[in-house]
Specification:
With 476 residues, this protein is α/β, with parallel strands linked by helices. Helix content is 39%, strand content 21%.
C-alpha cells in the first residue's frame, strides 16, 4: 500500500493541518491501495499563501519567458523518464485500461507539455504597435495565483493543460486533484521539485468538493481553472462572477457522431472504441449519440453490437483489456440507473447493460436502439460505457439532432467525401469535431460551446487563458 504523509506546499512536503485521510480504492479489486492526507481549509490557506508569496515576491514571474520554458523543459525530461510509472499509477487509482493509460493518461500529457513549452518560446509576450499619438506597447503578463481543480477521469491531461501554460505565463498554482485520483498529482509534484521549480510555484493539496469551494472563494486566488461537471461549473462560475475572478471551465458533453449514407462503417469501427467508449465511457468528449441514416441503421447496429460483445472487459492492468471498471461504486450505480431509465423511456438494449463480474465496479459496454433525441439518455451525460443509436432521414435532420443539445464539446462526421464532411462539421455547434475520426489535436484549442464550458485549452490559446493584457502608450 502506498502511503503519503503530507502535501506539497512551498517546495516542501508538509504535514496536514487535520487528521483527514483519503483512502484510494482500486476500482478493480475494491481494496484500499493507498492512503493520502485529505486537505482542509487550513491546508488550502497555507498553499494559497505559498503561491501568493511566490508570485508577489519570488523569482518565477520575474524570470524571462525563455528561462521559464527551460525549467519546464527539464520537467518534460523527468516526465518522459517516469512515463510508464505515471500510466501504471493512473490505472491503479482510477481503473483506466493500461493500454489506454499508456497513451491517453501518460504519453498525451507528455506531448502536451512539450508542445506548450514550444508555444511559450514563440509566444508574443510583448509587442509594439503604432498608435495615433505614439507607439503602444502591448504586454501579456501573468494573471497571478491560479487554482487548478482537476477531475479523476483524465487527471494528467487535465492537470498539464492547466499547470503548464499557467507556469509558463509566470503564474503560481494551487493544484487540487480529485480525491478518487490523487496519486498522479503527487508524482507530478516530485518531478516538479526535482526539476527545480521554485518553492510555492506549484502546490498540491487533494481535497473534496467543499474544500474546493473554499479554494475558489479564496481572496488571494486570481484565476480558477476547472474541469468537471456542468453543475459544478455553474457553481464555480457564479462564485467567480461574485468576486470578479477570472475563470475557465471545461465541462460536460453529449456529443454526436454523424454517419452519412456514404460512410465506411467497417473503417469507423476502429475509431468507435476511443471515440465512444474511452476510459470506460468516463470522458466528456464521448460520442454517445450515434446518428445514422435510416437506410444504414441496421448495418450500424449490427456492427456496434458486435463491437460491444468483443471489446474485452476486465482487469485494467491487462494490456488486452479495453473496458476497465468505473471509478467508484457510486459511479456504477449512476450508470446502471441510466440503463434502467433508458428501458423505461422505451429504448431497447441491443447489447450489454449488465454487470460482468461480482467484484469490481464494472458495467458492460451497452448499446441502446429505438432512441429518440428527447429521451434523457440522449440528453444527459451518463459518463459510462453507454451509447444510443438515433436514426435520421436526411442530412438536415442529422445536423438538427446533433445541435439539439445543451452541450457542444465534441463530435464527428463520417463520410467518403471528406470535403463535404468538413462542410457538415462547420454546421455543428461544438468546440471540437473530427471528420472520419475523433481526437483532440494538441495544436488546436480545446473547449466547448453552450453548457460545455467557457474558454479554451491546448495550443497557443491555452497560454492566452493565463495572461492579462497591459497597454503602455507613450509620447516621444
Amino acid at each position: 500500500m502506498a502511503q503519503h504523509d503530507g502535501f506539497y506546499i512551498a517546495g516542501e512536503w508538509v504535514a496536514p493541518a487535520g487528521p483527514g485521510i483519503i483512502e484510494v480504492v482500486s476500482p478493480h479489486t475494491e481494496e484500499v491501495i493507498a492512503k493520502v492526507p485529505e486537505g482542509g481549509a487550513a491546508d488550502i490557506d497555507r498553499a494559497v499563501a505559498a503561491a501568493r508569496k511566490a508570485f508577489d515576491e519570488g523569482p518565477w514571474p520575474r524570470l524571462s519567458p525563455e528561462e521559464r520554458a527551460d525549467a519546464l523543459a527539464r520537467l518534460t525530461g523527468l516526465y518522459e523518464a517516469r512515463q510508464e510509472e505515471m500510466a501504471q499509477t493512473i490505472t491503479a487509482e482510477m481503473g483506466c485500461a493500461i493500454s489506454f493509460s499508456r497513451v491517453m493518461q501518460a504519453a498525451v500529457p507528455l506531448e502536451l507539455l512539450r508542445k506548450t513549452v514550444a508555444y511559450a518560446r514563440e509566444y508574443p509576450w510583448e509587442e509594439e504597435r503604432r498608435g495615433d499619438y505614439g507607439p503602444a506597447i502591448v504586454r501579456r503578463e501573468p494573471v497571478g495565483v491560479v487554482a487548478a481543480i482537476v477531475p479523476w477521469n483524465a487527471p494528467q491531461v487535465v492537470t498539464i493543460s492547466k499547470v503548464a501554460p499557467a507556469l509558463l505565463a509566470g503564474c503560481s498554482v494551487v493544484l487540487k486533484p480529485a480525491p478518487e485520483a490523487p496519486l498522479d498529482a503527487f508524482l507530478l509534484a516530485e518531478m516538479a521539485h526535482e526539476a527545480g521549480i521554485p518553492a510555492g510555484v506549484l502546490n498540491v493539496v487533494p481535497a473534496g468538493r467543499e474544500v474546493g469551494e473554499h479554494l475558489v472563494r479564496h481572496p488571494d486566488v486570481d484565476k480558477v481553472a476547472f474541469t468537471g461537471s456542468t453543475a459544478a461549473g455553474r457553481r464555480i462560475a457564479s462564485i467567480c462572477g461574485e468576486h470578479l475572478k477570472r475563470c475557465t471551465l471545461e465541462l460536460g458533453g453529449k456529443s454526436a457522431a454523424i454517419f452519412l449514407d456514404d460512410a465506411d462503417l467497417d473503417a469507423a469501427m476502429g475509431w468507435i472504441p476511443p471515440a465512444s467508449f474511452m476510459i470506460s465511457g468516463q470522458a466528456c468528449t464521448l460520442q454517445s449519440r450515434i446518428l445514422v441514416s435510416r437506410r444504414r441503421h441496421d448495418e450500424m447496429v449490427d456492427r456496434l453490437v458486435q463491437l460491444a460483445r468483443t471489446m474485452k472487459v476486465g482487469d485494467p492492468s491487462d494490456p488486452e483489456t479495453w473496458i476497465g471498471p468505473l471509478v467508484s461504486s457510486r459511479q456504477r450505480d449512476r450508470v446502471e440507473g441510466y440503463v434502467r431509465l433508458g428501458v423505461q423511456e422505451g429504448a431497447k438494449i441491443a447489447a450489454g447493460g449488465g454487470r460482468p463480474y461480482d467484484r469490481g465496479w464494472y458495467v458492460e459496454p451497452t448499446v441502446f436502439v429505438n432512441v429518440s433525441n428527447d429521451m434523457r439518455i440522449a440528453r444527459e451525460e451518463i459518463f459510462g460505457p453507454v451509447v444510443g443509436v438515433i436514426p435520421f432521414d436526411d442530412e438536415e435532420e442529422a445536423v438538427r439532432i446533433a445541435n439539439d443539445s445543451e452541450y457542444g464539446l465534441a463530435g464527428s462526421v463520417w463520410t467518403a467525401d471528406v470535403d463535404h464532411g468538413v462542410e457538415v462539421a462547420r454546421r455543428i455547434r461544438t468546440g471540437t469535431i473530427g471528420v472520419n475520426y475523433y481526437n483532440s489535436e494538441l495544436c488546436a484549442p480545446f473547449g466547448g460551446f453552450k453548457a460545455s464550458g467557457i474558454g479554451r485549452e491546448f495550443g497557443p490559446e491555452g497560454i492566452h487563458a493565463y495572461v492579462e493584457y497591459k497597454s503602455i502608450a507613450r509620447l516621444g
